[in-house]
Specification:
The protein has 10 helices and 7 strands. It is α/β, with parallel strands linked by helices. 45% of the residues are buried.
């Protein structure tokens, strides 16, 4: 019996140690909503129950997204280059534009009508020591896209990086809720807009240039309440891979980032106040990403020093294991 008792006691000791570890973990989780924190401490737990009017103004958000990436130090990876970021007034686009500036690029921000956000992003970019222009318009309109690109090249004489990021998202409980007009709005903003911008930019892009498209985890897995949005994101992923193959012999790389849930105006402008409080908690991390957790990936894909051998990839940054 001594052998069995020893074994039982050993198992009890293992159990006790794990019970203590579990209790300690639970105490620690009370401060962060049980969310994983693998680097800089990020907001977690329940988010404000707020609903924004579209297109969503970041300045009106009760809990402001984190986009400055204060611990990120620039090293001239994009020195002397010119970048265009659509949807660059707020959210992921704002965070990307700021890091591009920190890496030495002049940045043009294209946006719909969020003038307050765009002006603040311009101020932040210029505080990094580079130049910025803001251009308001609708990427569904090919003529606007062409005029915007022409304006940027006329001002700075070159175009090295295009980030397609502008998007429209609105949930639907049923396929029957999707009218033709609504489906067209999502398709024409999210995929036609990327097509328009790439087509307008391409004649000015030289060997070493890069195009980066913002995809989504919904384009990888689908989403039952984002039928049209998920469809466009899947199309963006396919467009990325196809255009990458098409442009490789010109020395132009094309890649995409597929974010999971990210705390930006896009989401409180879509979800109800009740639903948004739990935003991102279903991920393995137990929280949404902040824009500053996405933006370094765009720097990596923009810089041919970092990713010169990378094209046609859809880089998932989803906050969930295996996705």
């Amino acid at each position: 019996m001594a052998i069995q008792d020893d074994a039982a006691n050993k198992q009890k000791a293992i159990q006790n140690r794990q019970d203590q570890a579990d209790a300690s973990m639970q105490k620690g989780d009370q401060g962060n909503g049980g969310a994983a924190q693998t680097g800089i401490q990020q907001p977690s737990g329940d988010f404000p129950a707020q609903h924004l009017a579209k297109p969503g103004i970041e300045a009106q958000m009760e809990l402001k997204p984190k986009f400055m990436a204060e611990h990120y130090k620039g090293s001239g990876k994009l020195a002397g280059q010119v970048a265009i970021v659509t949807g660059g007034d707020s959210g992921i686009g704002r965070a990307v534009a700021i890091l591009f500036a920190r890496e030495g690029a002049d940045v043009a921000i294209l946006y719909l009508n969020e003038h307050e956000d765009a002006a603040e992003t311009q101020r932040l970019i210029e505080a990094e020591g580079t130049k910025c222009v803001t251009i308001a318009g609708d990427v569904k309109d090919m003529e606007f896209c062409q005029q915007a690109v022409d304006q940027v090249v006329a001002k700075w004489g070159r175009l090295d990086v295009l980030v397609n990021n502008a998007a429209f998202q609105e949930h639907a409980e049923s396929l029957l809720d999707l009218t033709e007009d609504r489906f067209d709005e999502t398709m024409r903003t999210n995929i036609y807009g990327y097509f328009h911008m790439a087509k307008a930019a391409l004649p000015y892009m030289k060997r070493g240039a890069a195009i980066i498209n913002t995809g989504s985890v919904t384009g990888l897995k689908g989403s039952k309440k984002l039928l049209d949005y998920s469809t466009t994101k899947g199309a963006i992923h396919a467009f990325t891979m196809s255009l990458a193959a098409n442009l490789l012999d010109k020395g132009i790389r094309v890649n995409a980032v597929a974010p999971g849930p990210v705390w930006t105006p896009l989401n409180p402008a879509d979800q109800s106040p009740e639903d948004i409080t739990k935003f991102g908690q279903s991920t393995t991390f137990g929280r949404p990403a902040q824009p500053e957790e996405l933006s370094p990936a765009y720097v990596y894909l923009a810089s041919n020093v970092c990713s010169g051998y990378v094209t046609g990839v859809v880089l998932p940054i989803t906050g969930s294991v295996g996705e």
